[in-house]
Amino acid sequence: MAQGPFRLAWKEVAIVKTSVKNRLAEIRKSRGESASGLARRVQVSRQTIYAIEGGTYVPNTEVALNLAHELEVTVEELFSLHQGSQISPQSLAAEVLSAAAPVEGQPVRICQVGSRWVGIPVSASPYYMPEADGIIKRTGRTSARADLVVFDKEEAAQKRLVLAGCDPATGLLARMVERISGVEIVSAAASSKLALTWLREGKVHIAGSHLEDPKTGEFNLPFIRKEFPDEDFLVVTFARWEEGLVLAPGNPGGIHRIEDLARKKVRFVNREPGSGSRALLDQRLEKGGIDKHRVHGYDRVAYGHLAAAYCVVSGEADVCLATRSAAQTFGLDFIPLDSERYDLVMRKRTADLPAAKAFLDILQRAALRRKLEVLAGYDTSETGALVSNG
Q1: Over 60: is that where the pLDDT of 46 sits?
Q2: What span, in angstroms and rounded, lies between the C-alpha atoms of 209 and 166?
Q3: 203 near 350, Cβ under 8 Å?
Q4: The whole model's pTM is what?
Q5: Pick among 3.40.190.10, 3.90.1200.10, 3.40.50.12780, 3.40.50.150: CATH of 242-340
């Protein structure tokens, strides 16, 4: 579980080449082949294709032969040795979006947002090697600087949107968007307030939020209007979800309400400040007259609904506050506390981009609604609805 203060850092991105020269990108594009389509037929990942084309990975004999066969060329036409010394690394300035300090060897995705480059760390937990554009090679003298090794920034600049937020089910949306339109959605884990801050600062294309105004009971708009006084924003509903107590199967601790969190033997894991979950917890503790310091684990932070639920399934905590979808993902028990609306927010100029239009189109599809209802337990009656246009 990642911990640490929120940091934004400028990084130097090193693009490292090998001594093997290849024409894979040139030949693939001349055939009108997409990287993902070629990868499927050769039975490798899309990132492997990008790594080969970027010169940071040399394929084994079987992969090289399969590539040549699919592109109808000889292996020698695809690959050859460089004459002379190795190509010198190139550099790119990028800003890493993370709630924790970067660490060496951490995989990252990269994306261009307007005129700036951003890097988004991706997690390997719990069981798989994540798809990435490179890794953090080494950190600098301060935690604010690091060197990244990346594969191909040109590929990363094409048809990508950065979506910051905490909803576990946006992965279902991202996969459908990519499959139907070819647009990649790169998710940046963030609390609702942090996602809106990044959007205001021009570091992401889309921000997800489920912040409830305690005075009006309205979700998101009161906070969004504060962040964007110029009314340069578009708000579309993703879904309504339930948030509540996530517990081990069978609820062995007998935890049934917020007041039970103050019991001495109950181990809790919290969400980070600025998250809707933390705000809901604080509101319920105050309503119940419970001092937060009586909650064992109040200051222990998990970054995201799934990360919090994973602490419960792994036995590191007895209970957390998260969505029903996070509980369902790990087969955990769930006690609902509140129904919340999760909205997607973007700048109006972003909504005019072809990639964003494709993204918004998928939100209207019945197939997406069915998946959200069955797999995540969401209410999709408002999915795709325009909440505000500034």
Answers
A1: yes
A2: 8
A3: no
A4: 0.67
A5: 3.40.190.10
